[in-house]
Write a structure and sequence with these properties.
disordered C terminus, 139 residues, 0% strand
């Protein structure tokens, strides 16, 4: 469950949104981005070059990519991600859907559910490295 959640997070918003947005916008606006135009952006009066910079590399896709990779890294080491991570993923998803409308991001609710169930199962099995916190080993 944890591995599936990690891959969903990595693939959909992490790679899917970020790469998709870059493919869509970079050919037209990359020169403007590298000139620093996106940093001078006034949110109320952004031009397309500024808006697309914030739609791509400064969007939610990159943090979700990092969260997904962290989940996969933890899973490979037999460490269960903390349950609060499921709440963060679900909360972030619900806020973005509430503000921006229905989108493919809703798949992250499935990932959040998988994270939560995986965390609860690990805690029920008595796994010492569970969502309650990692044990500190001295040996």
């Amino acid at each position: 469950m944890i591995k599936w959640a990690g891959w969903l997070i990595v693939l959909f918003p992490g790679i899917g949104h970020t790469v998709g947005a870059l493919v869509e916008t970079a050919p037209d606006y990359a020169d403007d981005w590298f000139s620093g135009e996106g940093w001078r952006a006034d949110a109320a009066a952004m031009n397309y070059a500024e808006a697309t910079l914030w739609y791509t590399v400064f969007s939610f896709g990159v943090p979700f990519l990092l969260i997904g990779l962290m989940v996969l890294w933890l899973d490979r080491r037999g460490i269960t991600p903390p349950a609060f991570l499921a709440g963060i993923v679900a909360g972030w998803t619900l806020i973005t859907v509430a503000v921006g409308g229905p989108s493919p991001l809703l798949v992250l609710l499935i990932a959040a559910g998988l994270l939560l169930v995986g965390s609860r199962r690990a805690a029920a099995r008595g796994n010492p490295e569970t969502a309650a916190g990692m044990s500190i080993r001295t040996s």
